[in-house]
Design goal:
By secondary structure, the protein is of the alpha/beta class. It has a domain at 8-184 and 220-247 and 284-303: NAD(P)-binding Rossmann-like Domain (Rossmann fold), CATH 3.40.50.720. The chain has helices spanning 17-28, 53-57, 69-76, 91-96, 98-119, 152-171, 193-203, 221-231, 252-263, 291-297, 305-318; strands spanning 8-12, 32-38, 60-64, 81-84, 123-127, 175-180, 182-184, 207-209, 215-216, 218-220, 241-244, 250-251, 269-271. The protein has a seven-stranded parallel β-sheet with strand order 3-2-1-4-5-6-11, sandwiched between helices. A two-stranded parallel ribbon has the order 7-10. Strands 8-13 form a two-stranded parallel sheet. β2, α2 and β3 form a beta-alpha-beta unit. The radius of gyration is 19 Å and the shape is globular. The relative contact order is 0.14.
Length: 330
């Protein structure tokens, strides 16, 4: 039997990219999954809508707002493990609406931690981001690397990480902070660079990109989800921050060339100044030191980068109407 068999589990941010894949994996592992999605009057469950009908039917879906402590408390009550993924994550929009990132990412995390403490949950897996490290002072980046808030988004995630740390140290809450590097795969929106490149290559005469020089560590979504599952199970992970990434770096420009080659496309890649971050906000190198994940979580990447790209290309080709490829998604 799986550790998750018949275990009540809550996923916040379940309607998002990683959240929807995590819900799917937890159901496959036998968990009783409650999916917390952002309320809207259309009863739209986000990317959970793309799951097969039998998978959706196995979920208990709660619509609410992570900023509302009462809604969060009701969702957390009775849960054994809480995977907290709900967040505002688009870096460019954080320059325009920083207050919304504070209320969602910091206050929302506080609501989850307090509710889990009161409910006596066995584990909280809090989602961080490699953006918390800022531009690397050394590579590969391990968990001891200094944190630097180079965008309002990353600053709020650092604040949320420190709240999670404080609830473990102050109250003994069994928290694990998983710090994914750049995750990609099917269902990801054009807010992220890989779907942006693919969708433009399919439907636009040119592929527009911002700075081609930054280096990223792209990890396929199934491998990131495996990290979450292990973080929810392994007792040795409690109280720790653990990176989750491939341990391989590639520039954005080379990523675009790799994608176009796999698609058999010869469309030109052109520089678009509107997609460039403010000078001192750009994070130039993110390269994961994933040794702690291998040691504590027994988790290692299994999907090769090109194979992950092929799967992502195939999904976007089959869902072209979901992508407004002519627009810059902030």
């Amino acid at each position: 039997m799986s550790y998750y068999t018949d275990r009540p589990v809550l996923v916040t941010g379940a309607g998002g990219f990683i959240g929807s894949h995590l819900c799917e994996a937890l159901l496959a592992a036998g968990a009783r999954v409650t999916a917390f999605v952002h309320y809207n009057s259309r009863t739209d469950w986000g990317l959970l809508e793309t799951l097969p009908p039998e998978t959706r039917a196995a979920l208990k879906v709660i619509a609410g707002d992570i900023r509302d402590p009462f809604a969060v408390q009701r969702a957390v009550n009775g849960q054994s493990v809480v995977f907290h993924l709900a967040a505002l994550i688009a870096i460019p929009f954080s320059y325009e609406a920083p207050a919304s990132y504070v209320s969602t990412n910091i206050v929302g995390t506080l609501n989850v931690l307090r509710a889990a403490q009161e409910a006596g949950c066995h584990r909280v897996v809090h989602t961080s981001t490699s953006e918390c490290y800022g531009t690397a002072r050394y590579t590969p980046i391990d968990e001891g690397h200094p944190l630097q808030g180079q965008s309002p988004y990353s600053a709020t995630k650092i604040g949320a990480d420190k709240l999670a740390e404080s609830f473990h140290l102050s109250f003994g809450l069994p928290v694990v902070t998983l710090r994914p590097f750049n995750t990609f795969g099917p269902r990801q929106s054009a807010r992220a660079v890989i779907p942006t490149i693919i969708s433009q290559a399919l439907d636009q005469p040119v592929v527009k990109l911002g700075s081609p020089e930054p280096v990223r560590d792209f990890n396929y979504v199934a491998d990131t989800v495996a990290g979450f599952l292990a973080a929810g199970e392994k007792d040795a992970a409690i109280g720790r921050v653990i990176n989750c990434g491939r341990g391989e770096g590639i520039t954005i420009g080379e990523t675009a060339r790799r994608i176009l080659a796999l698609m058999g496309s010869h469309k030109p890649v052109v520089f678009d100044e509107t997609r460039v971050r403010p000078k001192d906000s750009e994070v130039f190198t993110l390269l994961c030191d994933n040794r702690l994940a291998a040691e504590v979580l027994d988790q290692r990447p299994t999907v090769a980068f090109d194979e992950g790209l092929r799967r992502t290309i195939a999904w976007i080709e089959g869902h072209r109407s979901a992508y407004k490829s002519g627009l810059y998604v902030r």
